[in-house]
């Protein structure tokens, strides 16, 4: 562990751990109870479960990466994880705009601000 890794504040590690748990829980919900997450989607349509499992795999990978980076207290790994999260929510923002879904736009904007702030906070410590 380098000196820079020791200087990560506990609140960043706690928030990152919570993001890891959140992403893993969403992944499990998508696999075992997709109707609870996707209320307006016809789950009987052809190919829907393929997309659901792809989404669940993305969420699981992100959760695992956040968990591992938090456990290792790795500034570069946490930075990359938050950059990925930021890019993901920018995509959600554009999706919300194109679908005219205000709740997705607002949620995405908030998460973009949070991920940007955490990227700044993590790299301010270098």
Description of the molecule:
The protein has one domain. It contains six helices and no strands. It is globular and about 50 Å long. Helix 2 packs antiparallel against helix 4. The mean pLDDT is 90. The longest helix has 25 residues, at 48-72. It is 82% helix and 0% strand. With 126 residues, it is an all-alpha fold.
Brief overview:
The protein has 126 residues and is mainly α.
Question: Which short descriptors sum up this protein?
Answer:
mainly alpha; globular; 6 helices; 126 residues
Beta-strand fraction estimate: under 5%
Order of helices and strands: HHHHHH
Report, as a whole number of angstroms, the end-to-end distance: 14 Å
Q: Mean pLDDT score, rounded?
A: 90
Main β sheet profile:
none
Determine the number of helices (DSSP H or I, runs of at least 4 residues).
6
Low-confidence parts, pLDDT < 50 over ≥5 residues?
A: none
Radius of gyration, Cα only, in angstroms?
16 Å
Tell me the structural class.
mainly alpha
Number of domains: 1
Number of strands: 0
Helix content: over 70%
Instruction: Report the principal-axis shape.
Output: globular
Set down the secondary structure blueprint.
Elements: H1 3-6, H2 10-32, H3 34-37, H4 48-72, H5 75-98, H6 102-124
Helix pairs in contact: 2-4, 4-5, 5-6
